[in-house]
Amino acid sequence: MSGNSASLVARLMSGSRCSIPVVVWSLVGCLVMLHLYSLLPHKGALSGELQIRPGRHFLELEEVEEENFQIPPPRGKRSPRAAKRRPKKSTTLIDEFLDESSQLRHLFFPDLKTAVDPANDMGNDSFYYYPGRIWLDTEGNPIQVHGGGILYDERSRMYYWYGEYKDGPTYQPHKKGAARVDIIGVGCYSSKDLWTWKNEGIVLAAEETNDTHDLHKSNVLERPKVIYNKNTRKYVMWMHIDDANYTKACIGVAVSDSPTGPFDYLYSKRPHGFDSRDMTIFKDDDGAAYLIYSSDDNTELHVGLLTEDYLDVTRSMRRVLIGQHREAPALFKHWGTYYMITSGCTGWAPNEAMAHAASSILGPWETMGNPCVGGNKIFRQTTFFAQGTFVLPLPGISGYFIFMADRWNPADLGDSRYVWLPLTVAGAADQPLEFEFGFPLWSRVSIYWHKKWRLPYRWSG
Ligand code: GAL
Fold first, then answer.
1. Domain interval for residue 11
2. Span 396-444, pLDDT tens digits
3. Cα of 386 from ligand 1 centre, angstroms
4. In this predicted model, which residue has the larger pLDDT, 71 or 331?
5. Burial class of residue 226 (count of CB atoms within 10 Å of its CB; 0-12, 13-18, 19+)
6. Which of 197, 308, 323, 459 suits 92 as a labelling partner, its CA being 20 to 30 A distant?
7. Residue 49 forms part of a structural domain
8. Are 129 and 16 contained in the same domain?
9. Pair 229, 109 in one domain
10. What confidence tier does 14 reach under pLDDT thresholds 50, 70, 90?
């Protein structure tokens, strides 16, 4: 050490002894300032939306809740000789989940007795979401909006939930094909509180007779999503249109003057000339809207800008997450950054979700890892035995969202359940990222498991 620096260190050391109170009070001052700042309402970085800092009630949503499932012992006796010849494969929770006769069935698919029934006084259970339980509408029927999404309609100040109406028989069209329910149509439900849902009927119905029509009941209509176009004053629906073997791989577009339909079906096509299966649409703060779809046999996603009337794609498209085999995209935005939750490609069987982030919606997109928190390892590896479909921002509550997923029941698809859980964007991402240059650019996306939970008291849409 040079003489100069040694004397500087000595001066600092000697100074530090007499200034300890100063340092302590400065620190206290800083903490008080930080706290006061955190209590002020903030403006969203780009959205201009008023951001309320969440209080104590929100912390409940981020509590880590564990699940302890015991896999039951194998049923039926096997002779010791048989057991020696072919030791029984140990069953996993996923096997149990997919096994209709599993003793654990009631844990994944609780029966009607436990249904969430907002039309009847549920006492202390009012406003609670119970992921996996049957959820009844205001007429007492199970809600039918699978693979769905929610539109908040500023004109009526209502939430509209659209999805696949699947209340029909499940069957296997071919030995190796996926289980299916014939197209019935797109269901729509309305709500003010995101808990009590009124059935608004089928807003886009199947075609019963003309078997050359895209919506003929023998085809596939999945993952419908609706956005509103302020300029044309139209509600525009995009959906996955396919044949029973999933070889058509198209998007379909429909339009309506009212959120409750009826929607007029316009056409189907392969966007940008590519195969398109699981998909979603996303409307940005500036009114530009995008189509996001799994393509090239589900090996990659494509993000494409829609035309101004939202009725078609433009030529602007980027291939993203190439080679990552992701589907079921659900996109959202927080403070100028785009986030997306996707699933793996295992049909109706659950698999691990991934969170992705990007500073431009057209990419590059980075994969941040599994967002699921709590439950147990298998819960986290299976997205809580569900597959994402939509992420709904809680208006005015910065960083808090509802993650909406489907717990598919391949034996009876109409009895598939909804898994709604709180999702937050906060803290640093836990995987080093390719484009971050040493800085954690993105925040961590977390989806918290809860057996039951509700939106914070006094929350209102
Ligand atoms: C899933 C997809 C669902 C449905 C299903 C059919 O991978 O996310 O929307 O298409 O496959 O097996």
1. 3-38
2. 788 899 999 999 999 999 999 999 999 999 877 766 555 555 555 788 9
3. 12
4. 331
5. buried
6. 323
7. no
8. no
9. yes
10. very low
Asked if residue 147 has its Cβ within 6 Å of ligand 1, the reply is: yes
Pocket test for ligand 1, best of 174, 243, 348, 351 (most atoms within 8 A of CB): 348
Q: From the alpha carbon of 178, which atom of ligand 1 is closest?
A: 12
278 lines ligand 1 (CB under 6 A): yes
Domain presence at residue 50:
no
Which band of pLDDT confidence, cut at 50, 70 and 90, is reported for residue 461?
A: very low
Q: Ligand 1 centroid vs 334 CA: distance in angstroms?
A: 28
Is 178 close to ligand 1, i.e. is its CB under 6 Å away? yes
- The pTM of this model reads 0.86
Q: How far is CA 389 from CA 146, 325, 343, 383, in A?
A: 9, 16, 9, 12
347 lines ligand 1 (CB under 6 A): yes
The 3-state DSSP class for residue 272 equals helix
Q: Separation of 327 CA from ligand 1 center, angstroms?
A: 8
The residue length of the chain stands at 461
Partners of 241 in beta bridges: 221, 250
Strand partners, 397: 52
Residue 27 lies in a domain: yes
CB 274 within 8 A of CB 302: yes
What is the domain-level CATH number for residue 352?
A: 2.115.10.20
pLDDT band at residue 78 using 50, 70 and 90 as cut-offs: low
Q: Does residue 405 line the site of ligand 1, with CB under 6 A?
A: no
Strands 264-269 and 250-256, bridge-based pairing? antiparallel
Residue 9, pLDDT score:
34
Write down the pLDDT at residue 282: 98
